[in-house]
């Protein structure tokens, strides 16, 4: 993996996932939150080792953690018996890191998986930490805080778009473009609702929280919304270029712009802001 991609993945493993899990109200996740470093630290170390048996074993430890997390999804569904849009988004967030975990094991072992090259597997790891876990989680939180069709659309389209993008890996570039369109629409809906709450106030749980008057938290939310406009345009340009053959950014450029922007500007800012909101919620 490149240094940049490894740093982005480390952010997802060590910060975004554990911080995001604290935003999900579920007693069953408490043990996973406490033990997550036991899985994430070996996975992070594996990123910096040459492809080898040692790197593969360490990556497998992380993959095991993501599978344990994914196992919470059916348990949560059995407990809540709910397929409300916000719940679908949260269930998606619980499952998607396992895709990253499996891809990491394959990439660190130097083995192509389902015909995918090692560079594609390397990029699959951050994709399903951020476009999978972080995006679905934030879409679900936004849906709960903002009653209305736009919130429900965001909570449904982000998981659907992620699923179609994954299916596009196995089908063709046009299916992946369709997934990118759906995912972009969902993420822009998240950005719209976030920005509307910041600007208007007075509606929904987010804006009734007095902490939203804090400039730092409002700034984090504003950055997370603004970044999505640019990063998802880049995602669309890449998917369109792959499907049509039109000029489009390289994977290296996408990692440095789309990937880094989503990791720092969207995921990190969103999780930090919503953690602050949760800590001071009435």
From TrEMBL:
Keyword terms, alphabetized: Membrane, Transmembrane, Transmembrane helix
This protein's record includes keyword Membrane: yes
Any Pfam family hit: YndJ
Signal sequence segment: none
TM region positions: 50-71, 83-106, 118-141, 153-171, 177-195, 216-239, 251-273
Name this protein carries in UniProt: YndJ family protein
């Amino acid at each position: 993996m490149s240094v940049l991609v490894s740093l982005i993945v480390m952010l997802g493993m060590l910060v975004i996932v554990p911080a995001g899990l604290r935003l999900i109200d579920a007693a069953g996740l408490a043990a996973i939150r406490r033990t997550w470093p036991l899985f994430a630290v070996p996975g992070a170390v594996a990123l910096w080792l040459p492809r080898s048996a040692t790197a593969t074993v360490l990556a497998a430890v992380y993959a095991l953690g993501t599978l344990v997390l994914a196992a919470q999804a059916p348990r949560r569904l059995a407990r809540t018996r709910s397929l409300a849009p916000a719940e679908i988004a949260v269930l998606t967030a619980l499952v998607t890191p396992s895709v990253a975990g499996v891809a990491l094991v394959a990439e660190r072992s130097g083995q192509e998986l389902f015909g995918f090259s090692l560079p594609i597997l390397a990029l699959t790891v951050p994709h399903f930490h951020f476009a999978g876990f972080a995006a679905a989680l934030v879409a679900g939180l936004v849906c709960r805080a903002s009653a209305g069709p736009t919130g429900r659309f965001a909570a449904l389209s982000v998981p659907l778009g992620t699923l179609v993008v994954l299916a596009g890996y196995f089908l063709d570039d046009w299916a992946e473009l369709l997934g990118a369109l759906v995912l972009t629409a969902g993420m822009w809906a998240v950005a719209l609702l976030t920005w509307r709450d910041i600007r208007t106030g007075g509606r929904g749980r987010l804006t009734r929280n007095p902490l939203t008057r804090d400039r730092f938290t409002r700034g984090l939310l504003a950055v997370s919304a603004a970044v999505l406009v640019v990063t998802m345009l880049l995602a669309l340009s890449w998917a369109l270029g792959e499907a049509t053959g039109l000029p489009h950014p390289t994977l290296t450029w996408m990692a440095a712009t789309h990937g880094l922007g989503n990791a720092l500007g969207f995921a990190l800012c969103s999780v930090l802001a919503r953690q602050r909101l949760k800590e001071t919620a009435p």
